[in-house]
Amino acid sequence: MSDIRIATAEDQILLDKEAKYCSYGDTVHYIEPPRIFSRCEGSYVWDTEEQAYLDLQMWYSAVNFGYANPRLNNALKQQIDTLPQIASQYLHKGKIELSEMIAVDAKKKFGLDGRVHFNVGGSQSIEDSLKVVRNATNGKSLMFAFEGGYHGRTLGASSITSSYRYRRRYGHFGERAQFIPFPYHFRGPKGMTKEEYGSHCVQQFARLFETEYNGVWDPKVGQSEYAAFYVEPIQGTGGYVIPPMNFYRELKHVLDQHGILMVSDEIQMGFYRTGKLWSIEHFDVQPDVIVFGKALTNGLNPLGGIWAREELINPKIFPPGSTHSTFASNPLGTAVGLEMFKMTNEVDYGAMVMAKGKFFLEGLQDLQKRFPIIGDVDGLGLALRCEICGPDGFTPDKATLDYMVEEGMKGDMVVDGRKLGLILDVGGYYKNVITLAPSLEISYPEIELGLKLLEQLLVRATQR
User: Fold this and answer.
1) How many Cα atoms are found within 13 Å in the side-chain-facing hemisphere of 443?
2) Nearest by Cα to 405 from 27, 59, 29
3) By CB distance 3.0 to 4.6 Å, which of 27, 72, 143, 379 could disulfide with 361?
4) Per the confidence metrics, is the pTM higher than 0.70?
5) For residues 244, 288, 142 and 197, what is the CA-based torsion angle, rounded to 10 degrees?
6) From which residue to which does any coiled coil extend (predicted)?
7) Tally of structural domains, the chain
8) pLDDT digits (tens, 9 = 90+) for 155-206
9) Do 356 and 341 share a structural domain?
């Protein structure tokens, strides 16, 4: 293996300028020196030295349909030449048709009438959902959320994100959350099946409502102090933890009994990442609110939003002026979103994703058999996880995964005579999980290539 790469003279000039002029508030340099990228296509990005990297995280699942997807890029280009801009208080065709597409789909799947409200991104849409929820519950500002859950880093979103690190220096400005254990079976009690553990977690949550002295329920008036439960059906930053299939159905039963709304955060898992438009569809429940973002526009133009039940968002209860964003429902974003829906509706897109995910997961399971440091692998569609552990196959090993990420970014692995790098994302409660979110358009040969590159990194990690 090679030594640490040294930045080119041109790159070093840029890095020196970055060090002086750029805020580091939204910057993480996973490797030194950081790579500077110059182009992208499909499942690959290239740095300024024309070194190619296979990307298995696709901008945290924002680019579900591949970098520089020609069809989606062309939709954006065409919109630029017709109606590139219009103030959000004015109507345009794209906003109306995209709202209809999402709302009609929700009616078909959940049997519920609802409406769509747009904003510019995931965190901002979480903020809008909090307004909808608080408004519908007479101003209640307490929420349930999961341990390991991530909903963003704006002030409201960070209050319902389980990591204190994201709000330590800012405090609380409204919402607060009680964090409930997620059915993380690999690290749960031994002796239970995955489904039994899911039921156990629901039963522990339901216990909070048995008596007023558990602090969440007033049996005299039959009312909870909590407005909603924010869920990521598949945990994202928490490590792509996939719960048992019975879990949300049983949880929703408890929520409905006590008048608590379920908000499904689909920002990272929506738009076919798990083989369905919304990941909550796998679990046979009716959400009250869905929050979406990221892959709606394949990362081309910021656009996110919420779908909410008619009773929560109709103009009488959520009237004009309830919230606002200058760039909400922008025509560039809605044009790409509409084209994405057309593209995925022309074939059985979900079946394609499930087949590729099954193939990828089988490859990970084969690696797990050969490398004891892989403690757990799992997947749903093309949301896949690979947990790196110590020699016992259980103790979290962040250091080894950090080493693998750095080695992948050296760009010095060779497969079939081709020199490549590998871009991985790190997640999980202990930052020891490879969270794999490849392009949904990835080919089977590219999946095999990704597995070969992962194998080389595992060999390096175990022989170092």
Assistant:
1) 6
2) 29
3) 379
4) yes
5) -10
6) none
7) 2
8) 999 999 999 999 998 888 777 999 999 999 999 999 999 999 999 999 999 9
9) no
